[in-house]
Amino acid sequence: MFLLIRISQQLINGLSIGSIYALIAIGYSLIYSILMFSNFAHSSFLLMGAYTGFYILILLSSSFPLSLLIAMLGSGILAVLIEKIAYKPIRDRGNPTLYFIIASMGISIFFENFIICTIGPRFRSYPRIMQTTFVELGKLNISVMDIYAAVVAIAFLLMLSYLIEKTKVGIAIRAASFDLEVVGLMGVNTNMLISIVFLIAGILAGLAGEFLGVKYTVYPQLGYITNKAYIAAVFGGLGNLKGAVLGSILLGLLEALITGFLSSAMRDIFVFCLLILVLLIKPSGLMGIQKQDKV
C-alpha cells in the first residue's frame, strides 16, 4: 500500500512537470517544423518569462494571472525580435541551416550573460503565492501550484491544438511544415507566418518560465531546463506537436519516478542516456518521420 502511494505521488509530480516541459517542447517543434533547425535560443524566451513575471510581482505587487500575461507577452515579443534581427537576415541570404544553429547558440549565451551583468547571478525566489498550499487526496499531498500549472498548461495546449487544426493560420503553419517555399508561392506571407510561429513559441516558453520560477527559483541558468524539453521533443519526434507533448509527459514521469525511488542526482543521467538511446535506435522519435537535411 505504501509503495502504491509513493508511485501515485511521483506520477502526479511527473504529470505536473511534464506539462510544463510540453509548453517548451512544442515551441521547439513548431520552429523546427518550418525553419528546419533547432532553436537553442529558446532558453532566452524562458528566462524572459521567468524574470519578467518575477519583477512584475515584486515591483508592481500585481496578481499572479496578470504577471503570467505580461511574462508571456514579453517572451513573445522577444522571440519575434530575435527572429527578425538574427534569423531573417540568414534566411534572406539563403545561408545553410548550420548558420541558424550557431546564431541561436550565440543568442542563448549572450542573453544569459546579459542577465548576469545587468541583474546579477544570484538566485531569486518568487513571492509566496500558492506553492506552500497542498491539497490532500487520501494520503497524497498535491501542491496547489502544481495543479494550477498543469491545468493552465493543458488549457494552453488545447487552445494551440484548436489553432493548428481549425484556423487558417494553423492550416498555413501545417502546410509550411511540408514546404515553406510552396506556401509562399500560394500567396501566404511567409515572413508573417514565421513571426507568428515565433510569437507562439515565445508565449508558451514565457508561461513555462514563470511556472518554473515559482516551482524552483529564478537564476540566469534556469534556461538550461529547456535542454530537458528539447530531449522530450526529440524523444516524441522533433517537428511533431503531438509527439512533443507525449515525449514531455513521458520524460516528466520518468524524472519523477527516478527522483522518488533512486535520487535526484541520477535523474539527469537517465534523461541524457535516454537521448542517446533514441538517437541510436530511432532518431525520428516515437511519432516523428525520418526526414533529410534537418538539424
TrEMBL record:
Transmembrane helix is among the record's keywords: yes
Pfam family, one: BPD_transp_2
Keywords, in A-Z order: Amino-acid transport, Cell inner membrane, Cell membrane, Membrane, Transmembrane, Transmembrane helix, Transport
A GO CC annotation given for this chain: plasma membrane
Example GO biological process: L-isoleucine import across plasma membrane
Membrane topology: Multi-pass membrane protein
Subcellular location: Cell membrane
Gene Ontology molecular functions: L-isoleucine transmembrane transporter activity; L-leucine transmembrane transporter activity; L-phenylalanine transmembrane transporter activity; L-valine transmembrane transporter activity
Bilayer-crossing regions: 12-34, 66-86, 98-119, 140-164, 184-208, 257-281
Protein family membership: Belongs to the binding-protein-dependent transport system permease family. LivHM subfamily.
Name recorded for this polypeptide: Branched-chain amino acid ABC transporter permease
Organism phylogeny: Bacteria, Bacillati, Bacillota, Clostridia, Thermosediminibacterales
